[in-house]
Design a protein that fits this description.
The protein is of the alpha/beta class and about 325 residues long. It contains twelve helices and 15 strands. α10 packs across α12. The two termini are about 30 Å apart. About 5% of the residues have low confidence.
Length: about 325
């Protein structure tokens, strides 16, 4: 299995958690990591992880990408580069296929189940947000798109590259954190894939892309399994989007209502992993992490994100401390 992702030193903990989750599901894989700053590259290069291939930003960036870099925020530039890093892996390393994965997802089961789902006549695979059919979620889908850029598969053939090149051209032309009718970052372009390219396949497995925006549809069963529409399925991967750190020891997961057992299972396991990784990074490389998000170019939005949003608690069970995470994981290990 061939994957690629991108992140900088501010996301090192999440990127390493992603890598660890792939190792834990015990599949052979290769993860191409595009390091968006030198600190990220230097640390990962020193760690020499067996299944990780590192690409420096300076080796990947083209003159065209550099030309648009100053017109976009760091987040917008990362979104712009998403299809280009997939192209780089397929063209530079001649891989038969490549799947882009967000650095803040975590695998609880093997992704092979998703690859096995792809029909032989399909060359591209995308994953839905799986919004519910409520009026509120229908609005969210209209705003943010039916599909999520989180797990995107492309074959290295004429048809797969046709779709990928179209997406790259669109992202180069326009990729901003603005909501327009047919555009929002790199994401709403995916809405056009199935319409324009019949070789596109949308994942059916509801264990893929469980996330805060669809969390309420799931209930916890037991280790690695959940219920959706009365059907028991394994959790393939969870998208840990929009974590809001209150302190170095606690995080606001910002979900609100939902199955509290499932919250504990998903978030305590993840936070435990993050804790271990952060301690190693601090001890070995003296790297610390900014607790507050700060990626907006808008001054007012930046202030709100850094000083207000993490304290907007929707549910008391949305606060998970590292102590809680450690206790939960230790308890589960004893039960197993």
């Amino acid at each position: 299995m061939i994957f690629c992702t991108l992140f900088d030193s501010r996301y090192l903990d999440k990127g390493l958690a992603l890598y660890s989750s792939l190792v834990k599901v015990k599949d052979e894989f290769k993860l191409y990591v595009f390091c968006f700053d030198e600190q990220c590259y230097n640390i990962l290069n020193d760690m020499r992880l067996k299944y990780m291939v590192l690409i420096r930003l300076c080796d990947f960036e083209t003159e065209d990408l550099i030309n648009v870099k100053n017109t976009r925020s760091p987040a917008e530039y990362c979104w712009t580069c998403t299809p280009f890093i997939i192209k780089y892996v397929l063209e530079k390393f001649n891989e038969e296929c490549c799947t882009y994965i967000d650095a803040d997802i975590y695998f609880f089961s093997s992704p092979k189940i998703l690859f096995n789902e792809i029909p032989k006549d399909k060359d591209v695979m995308i994953v839905s947000h799986f919004f519910s059919n409520t009026p509120y979620d229908r609005v969210l889908e209209k705003l943010y798109g039916k599909y999520c850029v989180q797990f995107n598969f492309f074959r290295n053939n004429e048809y797969g590259m046709q779709v990928l090149n179209w997406w790259a051209d669109k992202c180069y032309e326009w990729c901003y954190a603005k909501i327009e009718k047919d555009r929002m970052g790199d994401q709403k372009y995916l809405n056009k894939f199935e319409l324009l390219f019949p070789q596109t396949y949308a994942v059916k497995n509801r264990g893929a892309g469980i996330a805060p925006w669809n969390f309420k549809q799931y209930t916890y069963d037991n280790h690695n399994f959940v219920y959706i529409n009365d059907k028991k399925i394994p959790v393939v991967f969870y998208h840990f989007q929009n974590l809001r750190y209150i302190s170095s020891n606690s995080v606001n997961i910002n979900i609100g209502k939902g199955d509290n057992k499932l919250k504990q299972y998903l978030y305590c396991n993840y936070q435990y992993e993050i804790l271990i990784i952060r301690e190693k990074l601090m001890n070995n490389y003296d790297i610390k992490f900014d607790l507050k998000k700060n990626y907006s170019r808008n001054v007012i939005s930046k202030f709100i994100r850094r000083n207000i949003m993490q304290y907007a608690i929707r549910n008391k069970n949305d606060i998970i401390s590292y102590d809680n995470a450690i206790q939960y994981v230790e308890k589960v290990e004893k039960e197993l």
